[in-house]
Amino acid sequence: MWLNRTLLISFLLLTSQYVAANQSHNSSQPDIQHKAQRIVALAPHIVENLFAIGAGGKIVGTVEYADYPEQALEISRIGGYHGIQLEKLLALKPDLVIAWQTGNKKADLEKIEKLGIRVVYSETNDLTKVSEQLIKFGKLTGHQAQAKQVAKEFDARLAKLQSQYQDAKSLDVFYQLWPEPMMSVNKNTMIHQVLSICQVNNVFAQSRADYPQISIENVLKFKPQVIVLPEEKTKKDVQHTNWQDWPQIPAVEHQQFIRVNADLLHRFSVRALDGVADLCDKLSQSRRYYQEQS
């Protein structure tokens, strides 16, 4: 009981200090002229992009799975997908929180904003917008020059990849986002955009949900020529699909399985293009295989 009371008092004191210090501040309209010095980054891709522009040293708190670059492992953890520990966040005394609306709990973000802490949001649905995010982060942190250079290099590499595969022959591809429950992606997602760069047909592109939950029967219906299996770091016990039980699927019959690094392809960061290049190259190998078979 004594410990709980002590923690409660500590939390209330920290809360009152933040409210008093920030009561006149409007976090919904952040002042980009104020250069952040103590940042809490609430997603791995935010951490990566801040380090990419040379602002990683200003991050004082982050979430689970923020593991790149190596220096990121030394940053204090204040929560993860299941929620943010608000007391830990307040103790770090951030002057800026960069959040991810899709990956952070809405209730947690509302609490942070009500405390008057400046919050900026990162959007992650369009790969072509990574450069805009880099420039935005550069303005927030005072790293404009480096951010502009990194953004320019990102855009140039993206354009090169788009050009490299624009005339490639298409393949029917199933991107198995998650095995249990089995999930894929539709045309509204960044992963679909990546598949389009590689010039292949996402068989679940027309699904109503962005991340549709599907069955083996659905996959059987579309008969994909290739199955992409992202390998993701997780603490969960993952039940993998035994695809060899379904040889009537062309990808299984011809053993066309592609394994990719989810940390690259699923993060809205500069490194995403490493994942795109790897996926497109492996899909080209599958493309050549089918050409040789015909």
Automatic annotation (TrEMBL):
Which PROSITE patterns does UniProt cross-reference here? FE_B12_PBP
Listed Pfam families = Peripla_BP_2 (PF01497)
Instruction: Write down the superkingdom of origin.
Output: Bacteria
What positions belong to coiled-coil segments?
A: 144-171
The segment(s) forming the Fe/B12 periplasmic-binding domain are 38-287
Keyword terms: Coiled coil, Signal
Gene Ontology biological process terms, A to Z: cellular response to iron ion
Q: Which InterPro entries match?
A: ABC_Transporter_SBP, ABC_transptr_periplasmic_BD, Vit_B12_bind_prot
| UniProt signal peptide | 1-21
Q: Which PANTHER family match?
A: MOLYBDATE-BINDING PROTEIN MOLA (PTHR30535:SF34), VITAMIN B12-BINDING PROTEIN (PTHR30535)
Q: What is this protein called?
A: Vitamin B12 ABC transporter substrate-binding protein
- Native source species: Pseudoalteromonas phenolica
Organism classification:
Bacteria, Pseudomonadati, Pseudomonadota, Gammaproteobacteria, Alteromonadales
